[in-house]
What we know:
This protein is 12% helix and 51% strand. The chain has three helices and 20 strands. The strands form two sheets. Strands 3-4-5-6-7-8-9-10-11-14-15-16-17-18-19-20 form a 16-stranded antiparallel barrel. It is mainly beta.
Amino acid sequence: xxxxxxxxxxxxQTVSGNASDDIDQRLRNLERQExxxxxxxxxxxxxxxxxxxxxxxxxxxxxxxxxxxxxxGTIQADRRTFIGAHxxxxxxxxxxxxxxxxxxxxxxxxxxxxxTPEFAGDSATLVDAWVDLRFDPAYTLRxxxxxxxxxxxxxxxxxxxxxMERGFPSEIAPNRDIGVQLQGELAGGRMNYAAGVFNGAPDxxxxxxxxxxxxxxxxxxxxxxxxxxxxxxxxGLGFGVAASNGDKDGSGANFLPRYRTPGxxxxxxxxxxxxxxxxxxxxxxxxYYYHNAFGILGEYIRSSQELxxxxxxxxxxxxxxxxxxxxxxxxxxxxxxxxxxxxxSHPFTSGSNGWGAFELVGRxxxxxxxxxxxPLYADPNxxxxxxxxxxxxxxxxxxxxAKLVFDHTRTQFVGGAPAGGNREDEKTFFSRVQLSF
Length: 437
């Protein structure tokens, strides 16, 4: 009995020890299961794309960043008023200037792409459609339909230009062309270049869908920003030169230009019996400078082209047309001006102190047609020899995505009216609501 009484505490201790061991084992099992769950969640997350929606649009991206798809877009709705116009072909109107969704992305580190249709106007068109092979930041090969590397303002996004319509140099620079282009950045982004072979676009127009004359055009540009990212007053200075050279043989819109005013009225065109027949070359020095709230952009372009009348080789001339412009801007609310637009520090919010950013802009430019064009190659009674345009405007950046624009322009002409008179001045007041993402 006594022995039994003595053994009872030991047995109790054994039972208690076994229970403690069992609890410890269960805790270890739970901890291990939690580790396995975390590992499973991490493995799942590593395979699940990240989907985001913000001011830059909608995107889906793999966790490793190698594959990405983005949906972006720009919508511009305008009111256009022509002041005191009697002989102009344009009517006062509301219109959609741009309706452009953009699908872009990358497939691995090597391949990137962009696809941009245009739905403004009476029919849909394809604006951009290219594929990049990004071998290195210093050399990327772009293939497809793209903006030509000639005009400085032409290379600026349509959502960030200082004024609603581009100036006269963009009427002489090619717009979009189809071909192959090698491009890249050197010296830490302080120099960038582009050089390509294209079908060849006439001044101020897109190239045709297929090459219409079996000739190609060589286009190139080199641009320097020597103090880029430096903390000094010259960090916003950029300058460069662009050029193109090729042959064109044919008549009509695929070979010959028509030049337009800032109000998009045609003030010069060739006679119907004029044919492009031979060399077509362009040369364009260009520069911009942005410092704090101030910005200025300037460019000059010369386009020379060989022409004949009705195939008569004895009538051959080498005609040179030129254009230039200066554009200035000042962000009155103090944000930094830049080639890529303005981001408001305090976006507009109803009932609060946020009013967005206000930018004042001004522009002066000229386009001159070679004197040899008149009277045989162009009708002096309907085509002007020269156009001078000035304008000013207000850009109100409500947010990083919404923008209101108000522009006034006036264009004066030399020639372009019967009996040696001058074409009627074009005076406009345009306004725009823009949404971009």
